[in-house]
Amino acid sequence: MPQAHGHADFAHLNVVSSASARYGTTPPERLVERAAELDMGLLALTDRDGVYGMVKHVRACQKAGLRPVLGCNLAVAAPDGGRVTLLARGRRGWASLCRLVTRAHDTAADTPALSLHSLAEHADGLVVLLGPESDVGTALAQGRPGLAQRLLDRWRATAETVIELVDHYTPGHRRTAQALLDLAARTRTLAVLTNAVRYPGSTDAEVAHVLDEARRWLPGGTRPGPATAQAHLKSGAQMLEVARRLCGDDTAARRLIAHTNALAASCAMDPDADLGMDRAHLPDVHDLRDRLWRDCDDGLHRLGLHRDPGAVHRLAAELEVIEHKGLSAYFLTVADAAARIRDKGIRCSIRGSGTGSLVNHLLGISAINPLDHGLLMERFLSRSRSGLPDIDLDVESARRLEAYDAVFAAYPDTACVSMMETYRARSAIRDVGAAMGIPPHEIDALAKAFPHVRARRIRSAAQDLPELRGFQGTGLGSAAAQTLFRLAESLDGLPRHIAMHPCGLVVSGSTLRERTPLEPSRAGYPMVQFDKEDVEEMGLIKLDVIGVRMQSAMSHARHEVARTTGEHLDLDTLPQDESTYRMISSSATLGCFQIESPGQRELVSRLRPAGMDDLICDISLFRPGPVGSDMITPYLAARDGLSPPIHPSPVLTDLLAPTGGVVIFHEQVIGTLHAMTGCGLDQAESMRRRLGTEEGRAQVRQTFTTMADECGHDPRIVERVWEILSSFGSFGFCKAHAAAFALPTYQSAWLKRHHPAAFYAGVLTHDPGMYPRRAIIDDARRFGVPVLGVDIDRSQDQWRVEEVDGTWGVRASLADVRGITAAEIGRVLAERPFHSLPDAANRARLSRDVLENLVRVGAFDALYRIGSDPAAPHRRDLLLQVSALERAGRTRTDGGQIPLPMAGAAPAQGALPEMSEDERVRAELEVLGYEVDRHLLDGHAELLAALAAGHRLVTARDLHLVPNGQEVLVAGVKVATQTPAVRSGQRIIFTTLDDATGLVDLTFFESVQDRCAATVFGSWLLAVRGRIRRSGSGMATVTATHAYDLAELGAAWEESGAGGLADALRPQGPVRPSRGVGGRRIRYSSGFRVSPYADLPSVTAAPRGLWHASPGSSGP
Prior knowledge:
6 domains, five-stranded mixed β-sheet, globular
């Protein structure tokens, strides 16, 4: 289209996107969109340090009708320094660029750097642009033309070299550009014009300025150059004006533009021929077809399925699809990887839609027979399904890197998938605050006050969340705060740094390093420069190896059972056990995979699962879609006989009967479409995928109605079936996903029912769920499992099962002791048993802080017979001994250890009073993060008695006795706070309290949050008033109306007695000022976000470890 000041063609050759972390400002797609608006035919992407945005750039160019040019801007290694831009020409150029970028990252320096030696080795198909940031440009800027020419000659002798001219109208830019132009003329070197683009328009420059200022404060950061708004994607006419300004006349300017366009045309890439996109690049595996058929046939016979005609037919159909898609190598590779992981003794199971494949079951990838549960291959892979299949393997989180090692050892051409960590509210506030020069302590407090939300929601969160309203203006002037918030929101979604994806691996063939650059992750593994979506676009096969804490917990439990009883459990072949399902139905599921959250505990109490299919339904129903579309109510009503089953057509009876006619699963949607229209399952799956959008639903409705009419179905039935599909079809859950999760759900519950001590040892060691250790410990006590404290001679580096008075208990781990190092734990385990505290300090070389922490939590009690021998010293005596020995002149080592002789002075016998019960509990909370001797609330017994006597305080154990709708007061330690998406769209706070007799689940609706939110988020000992809400199963929750800080109630009671307590419990005002305690949320597998505040340094914060900090088990 016509340009301002006349039309002129121009191809930008130096363009960075937001993929240039903390430098670029705009996604590649937006830059391409702007280039198309300017009627350009080509556009380059030359991101800094890598090709991270390449795939998105190429796809955007294809969509917009532009030809892509690809390159990379790299720093040059010392002593030369500076930065240059490399452009790739054709397939060989792309391969050279990938290898060269890989070499640039293979350095100990903080910044990837290119050496001329590496460039000489990989110069084929590359063009080097030497601009103002190059050593040549720097020499000219310094007025050293002779040096500049010598440097240029060296570059020209190494690779094809072009001079790059840039003029952003800042001081010195024009002079340097003209000097480069003169140098090009003298040396007969091609010169081209670029605009070193960082943003699409001049109005977008502010974000670049913010990033430049923030980057100063990074290690190695430098002061940014002069601010400019000229580094935007200028039109051809605007670039012609720049050329005229540099060249001095129109003819020379147009020649410069022509040279630029010609170079761009020569570097334009063909996505298929040059980049190998749109086709799969598989591992190098030979004899594919015959081997896959042979291995699957072996599986048929091994599992006894060769006599099942349905299995034989299904296998043939699946293998035909796999062969048609050319994916035999993929399945063989995944099967081999899973086997190698298991050979290391690592638990490994499948998750996701791949559970629906019989081939996966026969190859040993999946333990679930899809024929037993009506699972479909088409939901996972079909002839018409575009893209590559995705098989996910769940492994023990504690041994995830060992699993990686097994895959890397077998397949050298393997790398991790990368991902971009993007700016969210907290990181954006920190970086913008630094750029604005706001004191670090103020920025730190403000950043921590915000929940983990997108940066674009900063101002709305500050306005809408009650717990944040009191913070605005505190420590920051309101004008400064608003500027900070506005600028921070402008960073929303921009990449901050690259990181290793937590589970994705690329398993490729020998051409991997010619198709993507690799760079080392912090863990030491090579990773590609593409995220998981781009990996698929490049045709690279991805295997997700997901570390799941519950798998580690169950493995630990299994080993503990074998160690203590000699029984070797095979968790994959457990019998279906009625007592396990009774336990699940009673909602005693804390610690169990997928079914421990308050909502899940309520659901299982209503659902009362009696078999694996019920668990599959439970897991499928407890998802945002089914919850949002209210599938649970009609399903339970039909299942429990409260309403008649829905059978809209006889052809659907068998398909829908197991769920009372309610469409819960994707597989039911596929089956319904297939049964009503006669189309194949392949086409039915294609139709199901389109139900997710309004446009897609309209298309599917027309197709469905036409085909169903042709099959002779009654139009009224067709309409009724369509109503069901349109209501539930886009909200159902993949049954194969649910089946994959149901297996570890049952396994964990079975362990809790039959080997509770081993189960709790695993859960407490690996922390797989949403509750803190102290809640799990309390649950263990209620389950009859004794909990033993840390013991210097008995505790291990993990929680272990130990016999206590004829029953199995659990012993706390040394690793839970604050400050203790892995080396110190190793020395304790190697050197014990110990004869005394000085003996332990000497031989295990323990630091003073660790010694004192061990003493405070009773780790030496058994050694000194504290508590059982009246003549024994007390813990305070031992603490005094540690101090006395140090004061005696013992010198400290560099590591802080106290070298005490074994003959150290014995502690005085009871010279100091023993620690009180309250002091012991406080010490355990501070050192371990949980209490062992007694429950935290035991120290508030008198206050709780006063609340029970005068204010109707009810314990968790007695809630079932309170009538529905009656007002109650409950109190306890907060163990979880959640703000999940709910059907109404409200923001609802779900909180769980532990009061030693059980858990109380609370709901705070929006109407009460103004007066309650600050207390709920800011306090960890709570009293809450509300009304009982009872589900159909009888499980009681509390709909909260008021929240109180239990410590404040205690202070009022101690100061003014019953009257003061009554005053403190009177209805509160609308908003309580914030203390600066924010909404730190951690996302768990259920989609909940827990706010543990573990990062608050305030002395009023909860003791270390009281709040849960686990990322939990990964979700679907």
